Amino acid sequence: MNIKKNLYWLAAIGEIVAIYFEINWLHQISKPLLMITLLIFFWSESDHRKDEKWVRHVTLALAFSWIGDIMLMFTHLNFLLFFAGLAAFLVAHIVYIIAYIRATYKNSLNIKFSVMPILFLGYFILLAYLIIPYVDTIIQVPITVYAVILFLMISAAYFRKGNTNPLSFQWVFVGAILFIVSDSLLAINRFSQTIPFANIAVMVTYIAAQWLIVKGLLKHDPK
Fold this sequence. Notes:
This protein is mainly alpha-helical. The chain has one domain. Helices cover about 75% and strands about 0% of the residues. The protein contains eight helices and no strands. It is globular.
């Protein structure tokens, strides 16, 4: 039994229960513990790889995700905290992109042409159509920048295909997709349309996304 893994899922269950039953004290305990327990698990599983640079980048991505989680917990006190959280997750995604590249390619990039990035781009154009008309011009810029980084993140996850073992590719790619779903639900619910049970959907996809990305990178084997 992996106690460190169970700690993450215990925090995850606590957060979902807290959101569903609106238990604020449990929410304030569980949500900050999510990235802390995942980071502890990641460190324990990657100890033999501690000299590899991508391990440090994943650590940074989880750290900035933790900062983003904390900022988004208090947006009801100050709307600017939403953009502070957005900035933290923006950095987390950038560092994840670097981690994908560092963990997968040792000497040079091996990227083959694919139509998939075109489909990703189409999705983000649709997402912009659903959100941009409903926000002020000054807010459109950071949202657009965030969408561009998300596009690069999912593309970087996809282009690991054929450069790592299938399990590592699949887990990271599905995790990246779920991260985008989580961010999309959060943005649509906040800026344009109310989505039923949005808070739970955002957290379930976010929790699964982070887990799959971390586990997928730990499974990486260039052979």
